[in-house]
Amino acid sequence: MSTDPQAAGGFRTALSGLTTRGRSFFAAGVAAAICAYVLGQPDLLRVGLLLAVLPLVCVAVLYRTRYRVAGSRRLAPSRVPAMSEARVHLRVDNVSRIPTGLLMLQDRVPYVLGPRPRFVLDRVEPGGHREVSYRVRSDLRGRYPLGPLQLRLTDPFGMCELTRSFSAFDTLTVVPRVEPLPAVRLAGEASGYGDSRTRSLSLAGEDDAIPRGYRHGDDLRRVHWRSTAKYGELMVRREEQPHKARCTVLVDTRRLAFYGAGPDSAFEWAVSGAASVSTHMLERGYSVRLLTDTGSSVPGPEGGFGGDSSDTAGVLLDTLAVVEHSDGGGFSRAHDVLRVGSEGLLVAFLGDLDEEQATIVGRMRQRAGGAVAFVLDSSAWASRDAVDPYPEVPAAGGGPAASGSPGGSGVNGGDGPGTAADTGARRAVRMLREAGWAVLPVPPGEGLPSLWQLADRYRSREEAGASS
Q: Closest Cα to residue 292, out of 322, 264, 314?
C-alpha cells in the first residue's frame, strides 16, 4: 500500500530537529556575536551572525521542502511458521518533479521480530525509486504489526533532521510450526481417508430417489420414469453426492492446565500439534474444524466444518496463531458443541486433567467414530527432568501400551495395574482409556510424527482384539 508522508507541523517542531552540529553552530554564533558586541569587533560580529543564521536557514529550507514521496511494503510471505524467516521489501518512489536529498528510511517493527531496520538512501531523481529489504524472525506465534514507515530528511550541511511518517502498516502472521505426519488409518475414519466416502441417493430405492430435470448430456439410462410421468417432463436421478469424512481437533486452552511459557512449553507443543493434525487431515480430504474448551469452533458457525481448501487451512492456522489461554476450568461447552451430531474422528490435545474433567472428556467419545488424545504433563515439561510422565498407566482393558511393545516399554509404560500412589493425572488418563480413547502421554521434547504412528498401532491392535 502506498501513501504520502505527513509533514511535521509547525516551525517550532522543525527547530527541535536541529542536530548536534546545528546546535553547536548556533551556540557558537550567539557567543561570537555577544563577544563582538562587548569588544566592539564588527568583523567578529559578522562571523557570529553567519554561524547563527546558517542552522536557521537550513531549518527553514528543510521545513519548506515538500517532497512528494510514496512508500510501499511487501511481505514475502505474509504468513510464516514460527522460527522461520520472512523478508520485508520496502520501496520508496519520488513522485515529485524535484530530486530528493539524503534520506534515512526506518521501519517500526516489534522487538520480538528483531532490531529496527534503518537504511540510508542517496539522492532519488524525479520519477525514480529505491528498493531495500530486511529479514524478520520470531520464535513466538502471533500477529505483529509492521510500520508505519518513517523517512528522516536532512539538509546537505547536516544541521537539521526532520522525521515524516507514512500512515500505512502491514501485519505479519506467525503461525505455529506444522510437522509433516505419516499417512496412517485411525479408528473412526473412512477407508482411504475422506476422499472415498460417497453416498448414493439412487440406492435408496425407486420410490425414495430424488430426481432432477434432464440436462443435455445426461445418460438416458438414469431417467426416472415415474417422476417423468408425474411432472410431465424428462427427469433423471441425481448423481452420487460425496459425503466427506469429518475430523474435529480439540485444543485445551485452560490456563490451569498448563505451566510455563515460551516456544518450548507444553502449551505451544499442543498448539503446534493441532496445526499439524488439521493441515494433515485437510490434505487427506477431510472436513476439519478446530474446537477449544470454551466451545469456540472454527471455521464453521455453530460447530460447522470447513472444506479441504487452502483457505480453510489458512483460517485454521491464523486462528491458532493468536489462540491464548482461557480462564475457563472445564470442557462443558465443548461437550455441548460435540452433541450436535456424529463427529467422525476426534483428536484432542489436552493438558492436566482432574477426574471431573476427565469424565466430561470421556463422554465426548460417544459422539465420535474414533478418538485420540495427546495428554501433556505440564509439570514434567516445565521441569524437563522427566522422560516418562505416566510410567504405570495401563492401556484400556489391559491392551497394548502406546509404544506397541508387549512389555510396555515406551511412552506410556506397562500393562500392570495402578497403585494407590497413582496421581490424579494417571487416574485421568486411565479414565479416558476406559471410556474408549486412545491416549498417548507426551513426554517433553517428543515429536508428533512418532506419536501419530503409535496412535495407528492402537487402532490396529484394537481391531485385532475385537476380531478375536
A: 322
